[in-house]
Amino acid sequence: MSSKESRFRLLKHEGVKGTFIICPGLCKGCGLCLERCPHDVIDWSEELGIYGTPRAAPARMDDCIACGICQLVCPDSAILIQKKQKKKA
Amino acid sequence: MDKGGTMPLSWHRESKPHKFCPGCGHGLVLKVLGELIDEMDLRERLLFGCDIGCSLLAWNFFNVDSVQTHHGRTTPVMVGLKRGKPDMVALAYMGDGAAYAIGSQHLVNAAYRNENIFILVVNNTVYAMTGGQMSPTTLAGQKTETSPYGRDTELAGQPTRGAEMMAAIAAEGAYVARGSVARMIQLKKFMKKALENQLAGRGLSFLEALSTCPTNWRTNARETWRFLEEDMAAYYPLGELSGPGKEVRGS
């Protein structure tokens, strides 16, 4: 059994519009976010997730618009999108 | 980042990842509920009652007082708790089998008495925990373990439209709505209104959430969304059916 800290370790992926944060210890690899992503940013990971299946991983972060739909539809609450603040002119 | 990481603060972290299957809609419904517990500051006030079936896997889901009851009996247990502790917020959480089959007597009578509790029904069209048998809400023609050639409506009748039934018998002040995990923002709005209805003491709050069961539907992610948004939504229309200031249908 992994310790509490490693179970909820977070991976951060920086993008242009925001940061995609995923908790590999929570993602069961259902794929609901892959289908919902409007810009096809998310793909399957090389490493296996908590259930021994590939998990969701952002493969094309340049296309991510930080809309947060993946965070909204994740049943395991494994994804967090942090939008970058717009710089005021 | 907040202390909850990616999860709502009201989620019980020790029990995560939760026990629901990958892609299960229970997680989505309970995420919305968890966010509302945080936002409405209900952690010390909510009484969470869950039923038999997949919904019982939520028994240690939240950092709130929880009780797990017999099949279909969550409604009367929560009615009793609410009557004994009127300041608390009582939530009866169950699946479609518990609500519309074995527990429908309690559902109907609670609606007639306009009990001041919140009944949250997760409708995934099957008895999921026991292996995907046909339930009252299984769609016409839908294949399950016990309807391998599809639900025959001549033999098994039409699927139960529970929210419409509740709206038809609900008293004035009761809130009845149907949401879907395919529309999370709308679902959250409905759930917030249902909780507010109870906090205002207006009577019964009833919300049916259309949900997913990829394990027993035997669907991949794409087909799961399609079945939920096309097949299910066509028979179970989304929206508010009854609420304060709104005319009760069927009266």
Protein model, in words:
The complex is a heterodimer of chains A (89) and B (251). With 89 residues, chain A is an alpha+beta fold. Chain A has one domain: Alpha-Beta Plaits, CATH 3.30.70.20. Chain A has three helices and five strands; from the N terminus they run H-E-E-H-E-E-H-E. In chain A, strands 1-2-5 form a three-stranded antiparallel sheet. Chain A has a two-stranded antiparallel sheet with strand order 3-4. The longest helix of chain A is centred in the middle third of the chain and has 5 residues. Chain A is globular. Chain B is of the alpha/beta class and 251 residues long. Chain B has one domain: Thiamin diphosphate (ThDP)-binding fold, Pyr/PP domains (Rossmann fold). Helices cover 36% and strands 17% of the residues of chain B. Chain B is built from nine helices and nine strands. Chain B has a seven-stranded mixed sheet, with helices on both faces. A two-stranded antiparallel sheet of chain B has the order 5-6. In chain B, helix 1 packs across helix 7 and helix 3 packs across helix 4. The longest helix of chain B has 16 residues. Chain B is globular. The C terminus of chain B is likely disordered. Classes of the chains: A alpha+beta (89), B alpha/beta (251). Chains A and B meet through helix 2 and strand 5 of A and helix 1 and helix 9 of B.
Identify the CATH class of chain A: Alpha Beta
CATH hierarchy, class of chain B = Alpha Beta
Protein structure class of chain B: alpha/beta
Give the overall average pLDDT of chain B. 93
Spatial strand sequence of the major β-sheet of chain A = 1-2-5
In this structure, how is the largest beta sheet of chain A organized?
A: 3 strands, antiparallel
CATH topology of chain A: Alpha-Beta Plaits
Order of H and E elements of chain A: HEEHEEHE
Task: Tell me the overall shape of chain B.
Answer: globular
Alpha-carbon Rg of chain A, integer: 13 Å
Mean pLDDT of chain A: 90
Could you please say which CATH topology of chain B applies here? Rossmann fold
Strand order of the largest sheet of chain B: 2-1-3-4-8-7-9
Query: Please, what is the oligomeric state?
Result: heterodimer
What is the name of the CATH architecture of chain B?
3-Layer(aba) Sandwich
**Overall tally of structural domains of chain A:** 1
Number-wise, the strands of chain B total 9
